[in-house]
Amino acid sequence: MTKYVIIGGSAGGIGAVEAIREVDPMGELIVISYEQVPQYSRPMISEYVSKEATLDTMKYRSDQFWKNKNVKLLTGRAATKIDFDKKQVELDGKQRIDYDKLLIATGGKPFVPKMEGADKTGIFTFTELSSAEGIEAKLETSKNAVVIGGGLIGVSASEALIKRKINVTLVELKDNILNLILDKTASELAEKVLTDDGVTIITGQSVQRILGRKDNQAAVGGVVMTDGTQIPCDLVVVAIGVIPRTELVKETPVKVNRGIVVDRLMRTSIPDVYACGDVAEAHDFLINQTRLLPLWPVAHLGGRVAGYNMAGKKTEYEGGTVMSSLKYFDLPVVTVGTVNPEDLDAYEILIELKPEKTVYKKILLKDNVIVGFIFLGAIENAGIFFRLLKNHVDVSEIKDRLLSEDFGIITMPEQLRQKMFVVN
Q1: How high is the pLDDT of residue 410?
Q2: Domain at 2-109+244-310, CATH homologous superfamily
Q3: Are strands 79-83 and 88-91 parallel, antiparallel or unpaired?
Q4: Of the residues 5, 110, 129, 228, which has the fewest C-beta atoms closer than 10 A?
Q5: What is the domain class of 112-240 according to CATH?
């Protein structure tokens, strides 16, 4: 019986490997990955497509990592079934691996809506290396692209294509881009930055049908919008978002909500089975509930916690929360927590807006505690505000200075500075 089996070799799986080896240097450890090279940074796919990064620079662990950590790595292999009674993982319908402790770190898969013509060549997603390689090969003969989805992935894809001199039309079903992390004001500022850089943005519509080329109906030649408008293009990038890869636990005793539900030790409802990363619903320290948080650092941290507990070192997951830190089209943005609530009257909201400098700051407070913020164009103090939020610090005595230009740790009372770094 293999002591540790990990399904998934990305951020969560690697975090678990490192933690296990800190506690148990020799226990047999197998990592299963359907990808040939699992240890690359998915957030760098944009740089790969724009030719600002290579596969080697995307690797956040070297090829020797697996050997150095005494890991048996099975690449290009898919786990197809788990027998929790026999404690076995089945691979490709052939090989079976017995496990003592199992971690499910299968991540998320791109959501692709049903569209007429979706079987044509020239349609890609934007969350895996194989998709990026496909886009890269297509760009040599392309001039126009349609990106479906105006969230983080869609904006990232648009930037990469613009840098490759491709004409980009970005389509978002909602009224504003980046609507999950920005409010309307911030979104409008971001939209101006994108359009100034050449992106055509269409909101409030979706792609209904994908057309073929006149000389080759099997290849993408354009799209038809909700209102019937036709947009010619050579490729389509579907960048709507990701959904948890929970197929392995479907119709099993493992508790699943939107993702696999885990406790503060990253344990599932099945003994000796753990989960982390985009596939798992883990603790959110802001709302004190479990939820999906498809974020790279959260996946790695959850993997480390799972790995420690698998190896017998009891460790509690401190939790993550909704947060994004990005810089697309040279626009730095940091958002954390609740930023666009429906019930505005339940919050105290502080705002600073300087549209001429593309600067926007919004801080939301509840009972004098910061519960969310947006910093766009000026993010220098984001780390301070994250600490205040995470540790639920009462900011009533400094509330009137939170948006001042000289606000910083040095200007805060000593008592508040200490509370910022309390370990929960």
Answers
A1: 85
A2: FAD/NAD(P)-binding domain (3.50.50.60)
A3: antiparallel
A4: 228
A5: alpha beta
Question: Tell me, what's the pLDDT at 424?
Answer: 52
Task: State the pLDDT confidence band at 313, using cuts at 50, 70 and 90.
Answer: very high
**pLDDT value for 174:** 97
E strands in 105-215: 108-110, 123-124, 144-148, 167-172, 200-203, 207-213
pLDDT, averaged across the chain = 95
Please give the structure tokens belonging to residue 74. 């099975």
Rounded to whole angstroms, the Cα distance separating 154 from 174 reads: 13
CATH number of 330-420: 3.40.50.720, 1.10.1270.20, 3.30.390.30, 3.30.200.20?
Answer: 3.30.390.30
Encoded tokens for 68: 């150095």
The predicted model gives 46-74 an average pLDDT of 97
Cα gap 155→25, rounded to integer Å: 42
Residue in 422, 374, 375 with CA at minimum distance from that of residue 394: 422
Q: What is the pLDDT of residue 93?
A: 74
